[in-house]
Specification:
two-stranded antiparallel sheet; 4 strands; mainly alpha; 8% strand; single chain
């Protein structure tokens, strides 16, 4: 527990009686603490426990009471089978077939103030997609039934665009136009990853 707190609070040393919030902790960091506890101790802990027991001594005492549920290990399901779509996926597939699914798009612009290593960005993107199957999942229709297909190989959805020759208003307009274009461009759910990155 001390190691988790020290890492997330970015402190060299945390005492077992120190108050998490007095050390600079806040609700977002509390969420990360609970996530680490779940990951490392494999137990389910409610977020409110940290607010009620803000020192490691208090928090750990609650964990030792034995009333906490053990988290089951997550195992990959059989990929030889053709898993059916979840209800949310069925809804998305139906809407996409009917009128396109652009209303489900979540465009996001992340400002970067310093130079970015594009190779590093690509490797991070690959690790993210490899870790989360939903980002590698397409929908295939066979014999009148739609099922999930988790891709083991894919093309990295990273596009690099340069606006180096542009300045001021013209540059801003081109960037906004590109954002709008991506937000309105439909995904082909039968073969395309549900994520695009443009740098």
């Amino acid at each position: 527990m001390c190691a988790i707190w020290e890492e997330l609070l970015q402190l060299d040393r945390v005492g077992v009686h120190d108050n998490f919030f007095a050390l600079g902790g806040h609700s977002l960091l509390a969420t990360r603490v609970i996530s680490r506890v779940r990951e490392q101790l494999e137990i389910e802990v409610e977020l409110r426990r940290l607010f009620e027991c803000p020192s490691i001594a208090q928090f750990a005492q609650g964990l030792s009471e034995g009333s906490l549920a053990r988290l089951p290990r997550i195992t990959a399901s059989d990929r030889d089978a053709r898993p059916p779509l979840s209800f949310a996926q069925q809804r998305l597939w139906f809407i996409d077939q009917l009128e396109g699914s652009q209303q489900y798009h979540i465009p996001l612009r992340i400002p970067v103030r310093e130079s970015l290593d594009v190779g590093c960005l690509e490797r991070a993107l690959i690790r993210l997609i490899d870790r989360h199957e939903v980002l590698r999942t397409c929908y295939r229709e066979e014999d009148g039934e739609v099922h999930q297909l988790v891709l083991s190989e894919y093309e990295v959805p990273l596009e690099v665009v340069s606006f180096a020759e542009l300045e001021g208003e013209e540059k801003r307009a081109r960037i906004e136009g590109l954002e709008q274009s991506h937000a309105n461009k439909a995904f082909d759910l039968s073969r395309e990853l549900p994520i695009r990155v443009t740098w």
